[in-house]
Amino acid sequence: MTRLPPALILGAALSGLFLAAALVSLLWVPHAIDGVAIANRLQPPSATHLLGTDQLGRDILSMLMVGAQTSIAVAILAVGIGVALGVPLGLAAAANRGSWLDEIIMRGNDLIFAFPSLVIAILITARYGPSATNAILAIGIFNIPVFARVARGAALPIWTRDFIRAAQTAGKGRIRISAEHVLPNIANLLIVQATIQFSLGILAEAALSYVGLGAQPPTPSWGRMLSEAQTMIYTHPMLAVLPGLAIVMTVLGLNLMGDGLRDALDPRLRRGRA
Amino acid sequence: MIAIRDLSLSIHGTPILRGVSLDIAPGEILGLVGESGSGKSMTALALMGLLPQGARTTGTALLDETDLLTLPEAALCKLRGNDIGMIFQEPMTALNPLQTIGAQVAETLVIHGRATRAEAQRIARDRLDRVGLSAIPLDRYPHELSGGQRQRVCIAAAIALNPRLLIADEPTTALDVTTQAQILDLLKSLVAEDGLSLLLITHDLAVVADMADRIAVMQTGAIVESGSTAQVLAQRRHPYTAALFAASAHTPSRRVHRADEPLMVVEDLHRIYPGARTLLRRGPPVAAVRGVGFTLHRGESLGLVGESGCGKSTLTRALLGLDPVQGGDIRIFGRSILPKMPDSTRAGIQVVFQDPYGSFDPRWRVDQIISEPFHLLPDAPRGADRRARVAEALRAVHLAPEDMDKYPHEFSGGQRQRIAIARALITQPRILVLDEAVSALDVSVRARILDLLAELQGAFGLSYLFISHDLTVVRAITDRVLVMQAGEIVEQGPTADVFDRPSHPYTQHLLKAAPRLPDMTERLA
Fold first, then answer.
1. In a domain, A1, yes or no
2. Is the ipTM reported for this complex over the cut 0.85?
């Protein structure tokens, strides 16, 4: 067993911490977050409220934990949409390299890439109203071309290998070869890309919620906590710093994990380190 | 001039070289021969001070009075290029694709402060003329040149500063026979006319037999025999030298059961690639296979030889039903495989590829790999039955049935090629296409695989289509041979006739260029 890269361990620990917070909050939070108690508002950290309370008297630690649920759920589902649609498209493009299908898929990709993502998100919410679901859709659509490109790029060199020719002489078709031979051999790249897209998804969700296009009150969200804290940033800076810190730490953790996974999964890099 | 004494090398504690001693005199060609992993390239890298990290050496390697092993990096930098030049096996990757060839030859001169830019250009021109590229302007990029021309550019860069020693590590292994002959001639003339010494590293005894003044034979990190070329080749005192010699010229004993029953009939086959696409239009189409026709009979070994780019790979893909064709017909077992080869036909024609490393999915176990062609059978065996069939196939290629639960990376190159043969045999085909199937193997491994192929042919009555650029191997294993040039079959006939009395000028040219081991039995008598 080779030693795991330190970036992977640190990244996994950080991301694991926030995932754990989200999971715990499903069962238990220090204080209920729908309990508005104006009398308790803007308290400094204390034994009862470890991170203090916000302008409505809600416990900030509890808000952050429940907010993690929103961020993680949005990011996971958005990455899921990207993987579920993008990877098959990329594999199909690679299996039919140079054909009209390849052209259509890749030019379609270019088209999505050419749109500013925020504009699309605004369009969707303008038509269907702001909600976490629509945020997932908006972020997910932009993950499709990312995964299609990565899958196609990684699959093309696999298609030139002799074991693909061997599978062809065994009478297997393109779809079957893509599933049996190509996908497992590009999976590590896709996993790394998924962690990176996951962190970008968390950032995007925070950004959409910040401008009011994401999760709606009373669902807590890190982005909305930031925007609500905006007016009090000079008097009560902790209200903004804490959700900001949560976003930064999660994204940092996921990026470190992505880098670490790439090193750990890439056999060429593994050999280089040995 | 070069005196290596008792050089030992270990990398991270693994011993690589054990007590190597070598001498190279000025103006001499020393052939260093050995199979892969014998340590011959490491010996060269030690001389250049280019050993990988974690390498520890003992002993001395003197260039005149300086010990190359203890020299600091800065002094080594001065020495490389100045006193010792090196060329590598792969001319495709040894040149920077983004720089002109002139710049790459001139680079050495400028780095060593021997010339101003303008002078360096002039010297670069001179060196390129010297290696026979006088018709090629300095501002060409590597991709505009052929493999042989690129190797000439590498040589020009290596001799830019008139080094005293040139190290050539498998300089012609990646090249075709006719190109190989030209590059070897060039190296020979450099030594004869410019007084260079040459350390020629190769796995091919035939190459050194023709070139070297002296030969040193390496096995597992040690020199087992050295001496003058004539003496080493004639006496072969060490058993390893004898074995290497025998393996190079190995002819498996074959029982031929050729029947007059045609299994594969190819008629006037054409394969045309559409031209390269630019923005709106396509360039002119490229005809890679033009009017090829031949017949493969039952129990026969048919060779297909030709140099790279002659269309033999394209032809192979068409025969395996992997590519569409634009004209002609292919009938296998009396049935046309066009436009799409039926699975039942596919099961009867299987293939073994060249690269024992690239032909298996690294994530699959051996039993999965070998049983993959079962996909072609309507009633493929399952469970215990399937494992029994895989075990049987492994035994047929002399591997242990227990090997089926391992992964391909746990096997050596020769063993992998046996696995590839087992995979090809699993559907009990009648035709086996061997696409350069032994070209990537060491001579001794190659000899054993050829024996195995001969044995399997006898046991199962197989027909072989043996595609290779290696004329020695084709001669050893085929009954009839097709010679392909520029998409056409220019000559075909019984192997012995074609080799002994070639009628087409191209075949004559090809046979003349192939390096051959001198017939020592004659000389000893």
1. no
2. no
